[in-house]
Amino acid sequence: MVPSACRGRFAPTPSGPLHFGSLVAALGSYLEARCRQGEWLLRIEDIDPPREVTGAADAILRTLDAFGFEWDGPVIYQSRRTETYRAALEALRRLDLVYPCACSRRQLVGHARRGVDGPVYPGTCRAHHGHDPALAQRFRMPADRLVFEDGLLGRVACNLSYECGDFVLRRADGVYTYQLAVVVDDAEQGISHVVRGADLLTSTPRQIALQQALGLATPAYLHLPVALDEHGDKLSKQTLARAVKAARPLPALRAAAAFLGLSLPADIDTPAEFWSAALAAWPGHRLPPIRGRRANPCNP
Ligand code: GLU
C-alpha cells in the first residue's frame, strides 16, 4: 500500500462524551486531511486512568460513526501502549535529557515564574541524574528559541526553557504524560498534519522539543479557534459541556461548521449532503481568528 502523503488524526481523551468543542476539532482535522486526499486516524488518549469515564471511549466512537466520520485503520488506545512510552523515556534518559524530580506542587508555590500556560518549573532538581522510579521524571528542556509555523496563526515563537521549562514525562504514580505519549504516537502513526484546538497551542513547543530530542519528524500544525462558554472558558468534558446528540447529527455538524466559519447551503437534509458540501467548501477557506486569552500566548 502506498502511504498517503497526508495523515491527520483526532485524539480525544475519554473523560466524557463527545461535546461541541471536540466535535469542532474532529471536523477541522477531518476536513483538512480529506481535502488533501489524506487519511484520518483515531486515537483514544486514555493514558490517565483517573480522568477516564467508563464507557466514554465507546460513546465517542459511536457518535463519530453516527455523524458520518470515516476513519482509517484500527483505533489506537494509549492505555495499551505504555511499553512504547517506556522505551521513548529510556531513549531520552540515555541522552541525559531526563532527571528524577522530588519536588511537590506545594514546594513550588512562590518559586515558579509564570510561563506560556502556567508556572515554569524553577529547575530545583535539574542537577539530578540517574533513575529513581518512585519519583516524577522531567525533561531537560533546551534553552533554545523555537519557531514554528501554525496554519492559522503563522509564525509562533517560544523561548523553550524560559517560557515552558522542564516538564514531566512520567508522573511519580507511574503515569506517562500527555506530552510524551502524543509525540510518540503522532510519530508512530505517521501523522503529518495535526489539527486541534488552540487550547493546545502552548503544548506544541514542548512537543516539538521532544520530537527534536528523539529525532522524530515534526508534523504541520493548525490550531483551531476554541469554543468558549458564557464565562469565556473552554468547553470541556470536565466542565460538563453538553454532549452532542448522536441521534441528531445534522444540527451539531452544521453548528460546528458554522463555528469554523464555513458557509454551507441552507437546504442540506442529510449527513451525506453535509459532508459533500463541507468538503467542497473547506479548501482555501479562511478560518475565523482565534480570540480571547488564548489568542497566541506564545507571542503575547
Ligand atoms: N487528548 C487531547 C484532548 O482531548 C487532544 C490531544 C491532541 O489533539 O493533541 O484534548
Secondary-structure map with pairings?
Layout: E1 7-10, H1 20-35, E2 39-44, H2 56-66, E3 76-77, H3 82-94, E4 98-101, H4 105-108, E5 113-114, E6 119-120, E7 136-139, E8 145-150, E9 154-159, H5 160-164, E10 168-170, H6 178-188, E11 193-197, H7 204-214, E12 220-224, H8 249-259, H9 271-281
Helix pairs in contact: 1-8, 6-7
The chain binds glutamic acid.
Word description of this protein:
By secondary structure, this protein is α/β, with parallel strands linked by helices. The protein contains 9 helices and 12 strands. A 3-stranded parallel beta sheet has the order 1-2-3. Strands 4-7-10 form a 3-stranded antiparallel beta sheet. Strands 5-6 form a two-stranded antiparallel ribbon. The longest helix is centred in the first third of the chain and has 16 residues. It is globular and about 65 Å long. It starts with 6 loop residues before the first strand and ends in a 19-residue tail after the last helix. It binds glutamic acid (GLU). The site of glutamic acid has 7 residues, from loops. Glutamic acid binds next to loops.
